[in-house]
Design a protein that fits this description.
The chain is built from six helices and two strands; from the N terminus they run H-H-H-H-E-E-H-H. With about 180 residues, it is mostly helical. A two-stranded antiparallel ribbon has the order 1-2. Helix 2 crosses helix 3, helix 2 crosses helix 4 and helix 5 runs antiparallel to helix 6.
């Protein structure tokens, strides 16, 4: 059998193009995202697309970094991180925080109702035969009653007032002398 010859083109193999984004620590991406938000300023809405493009994050990386920001960075900075009206922002404004909490509680309430109506209650009387399902049914019912109570209290509460500490304002640049 004759020896096999290799063409010069095939000897230097090029690395295939990566199909996946290389792994980056969630903490690092969260800090980069927070820097993007700080660059925009407090109470300024920044879109998800703007954040991900500036820090080069994928969809799943963005999901993880949001959790990291909420779990760690917000406590460190003393500011809330909100998904707010088609974007994200950080704030200390109690009105925005209350609006976001109310919206989130309504979403949770809807999901709890769906757990009952779509999964547990269709079994009807048979739920009583399954201890864990009966417990879920009772506890979800309790959560829904509590949610209703919170909602009724929330609508009767006064609108939060602005903070007493002055907001930082940018200095106006002086016009050049003519």
């Amino acid at each position: 059998m004759p020896p096999r010859t290799t063409s010069p083109k095939r000897t230097a193999k090029e690395a295939p193009h990566p199909r996946r984004t290389p792994p980056v620590a969630t903490q690092h991406l969260a800090e980069l995202a927070w820097n993007v938000l700080e660059g925009a300023g407090e109470d300024v809405i920044v879109t998800k697309e703007e954040i991900t493009s500036k820090i080069h994050a994928t969809e799943s990386q963005f999901t993880r970094l949001k959790s990291y920001i909420r779990d760690h960075i917000t406590m460190e900075k003393g500011k809330a991180f909100l998904a707010f009206r088609e974007g994200y922002l950080f704030t200390t404004d109690p009105t925005k925080i209350a609006e976001s909490v109310g919206w989130r509680l309504r979403r949770i309430n809807t999901e709890l109702r769906r757990l009952l109506t779509g999964w547990i209650n269709p079994l009807g009387e048979d739920v009583a035969n399954y201890e864990v399902l009966k417990m879920y049914q009772e506890e979800i019912g309790h959560m829904l009653r509590l949610s209703e109570r919170i909602r009724s209290l929330g609508t009767s509460m006064p609108t939060p007032t602005a903070s007493t500490k002055p907001k930082r304002r940018r200095r106006a640049t002086a016009a050049p002398a003519i």
